[in-house]
Amino acid sequence: DSARRQPHAAMLATPRMGHLIPLAELAKRLVARHGVRTTLLTFASMASATQREFLAALPAGIEWVSLPPVDLSDLPPDTTVETLMSEECVRSVPALTGILARLGETTDLVAFVADLFGADSFDAAHDAGVPRRYLFYPGNLHSLTLSLSLPELDVSIPGEFRDLAEPVRLPGCVPIPGQDIPAPLQDKSNPGYKWMVHHCKRYRDADAILVNSFQAVEPDAAKAMRVPKPGRPPVYTIGPLIKTNAAPRAAPCLDWLDRQPSKSVVFVSFGSGGALPMEQMRELALGLELSGQRFLWVVRSPSGDDGAAVNGNYYDAESKKDPFVYLPEGFVERTKDVGLLVISWAPQTEVLAHHATSAFVTHCGWNSVLESLQHSVPMVAWPLYAEQRLNAVMLADGVGAALRLPESKGKDDIAAVVREVVEGKGRGAVVRANVAELQEAATDGLRHGAAAAALAEVVDKWTAGRSM
Ligand code: UDP
């Protein structure tokens, strides 16, 4: 029957919204444009309300299967997100092998796709006889280039990256100061570091790598990637894949935006798990107030002194406590006419698409960056964890789509940079113009340009030589 013969891809998302969202977008494009049905596989730990709601809303043609839980209770309490995701993946390989083998028996399973922490699942695909194994890289080419170089850098750089006197220079990439190398690589004694080196070695086992970026945002890196290199799988830039909602949901913050003047509001949000240390949260509040601009701020309770939330809230995106108690005294009252605070979560793509939104203070999570570019919103870079500092370097020093806050992040710095970007004067004007150009390039690429062609080529490879 036709369902049996329709090409089918199985895709495994490691447990972060920032990994799941673009992978689901890839699934949607495969279904809608290429007639490839997909099964999204998720880990048992991905169980927050936000995540379930997202998965439940997937369109027809995309199945969702949750892997059975695995025991992680032997891992110490201070285990990092990267190690947790990696361990969960390895321990899920036996169950995944069974699931893929069953899908292979009943459908025309042409490919298995895993994301950046899931390369160990290639073993399951191999054992289950899935013909192709692809890596989906939800970050950008700068961070992929670094990842692919990591096995060599691990050997050639004896100390810690943050102690390097010179920036790290990689083909086609903006020079990366040592302290801006991604956080999981900054402590070689942590098991998380060894996991990263392990994953990066395994990327070479992929038949090809699909990257959620586009050429205009990092043209030199894209050019460098096109030069074939022995041992490196071919790389396809297929982005920007960003969240698209079938029906816009009603949200009070969107009603509030409706009542604000065009291009007047600065949107402040730190991704699905980012939280600021208490002192920075207070400076941000005072900085926004000082800037005199309208703002919409997704507020979370501050990260603990132990730095736990510097890694993001792993298991759920909901703030545990009332974050308002951490704000400076009188702040809410003083700013009530110009500011709106929402707790923990806002419909970000709708906010960025709104005509009242003028600038985005962002943690530089790559999905947030792509969403901002897709809607031509200039950014103020406030990186927190993961590879966000690297993204900030590439945006501020490379393509010029953001102004980066100085390390001190005092209220005066915040007010000045926010004003510069919102008012679009001086450096703010340059950033605004660059972002407008990037929006155009991103849209064209997806519609009929390079990104659309790259994905079509991938699907051709998946379906070549099939008996119909
Ligand atoms: N997001 C959202 N509302 C929020 C916070 C985040 O819709 O209040 C979405 C955002 O639009 C993006 C994703 O969650 O698609 C966050 O991914 P990103 O890579 O920016 O950061 P991460 O959460 O991985 O740190």
* Sequence of secondary-structure elements: HEHEHEHEHEHHEHEHEHEHEHEHEHEHHH
The main pleated sheet reads as:
7 strands, parallel
Gyration radius, in Å: 22 Å
Percent helix = 40-55%
The number of helical runs is 17
Average pLDDT rating: 93
- % residues in beta strands: 5-15%
Placed side by side, the strands forming the largest sheet appear as 3-2-1-4-5-6-7
Low-confidence stretches: 305-319
- Cα end-to-end separation: 11 Å
> What global shape is seen?
globular
Strands, total number? 13
Please state the structural category: alpha/beta
**Distinct ligands, ions and cofactors found in the model:** uridine-5'-diphosphate
EC number: 2.4.1.-
Protein name: Glycosyltransferase
Keywords: Glycosyltransferase, Transferase
GO molecular function: UDP-glycosyltransferase activity
Notes on the structure:
The protein is 42% helix and 14% strand. The chain is built from 17 helices and 13 strands. The strands form two sheets. A seven-stranded parallel β-sheet has the order 3-2-1-4-5-6-7. Strands 10-9-8-11-12-13 form a six-stranded parallel β-sheet, with helices on both faces. The longest helix has 26 residues, at 81-106. Helix 6 (141-156) packs across helix 7 and helix 16 runs parallel beside helix 17. The protein is α/β, with parallel strands linked by helices. The chain has helices at 2-5, 17-34, 49-56, 81-106, 122-127, 141-156, 191-202, 219-226, 252-258, 278-291, 331-334, 348-353, 366-374, 388-399, 411-423, 427-447, 450-463; strands at 7-13, 37-42, 62-66, 108-115, 133-137, 208-211, 235-237, 265-269, 294-299, 339-343, 357-362, 379-381, 402-404. The protein binds uridine-5'-diphosphate. It is an enzyme of class 2 (transferase). Keywords: Glycosyltransferase, Transferase. Belongs to the UDP-glycosyltransferase family. GO terms for molecular function: UDP-glycosyltransferase activity.
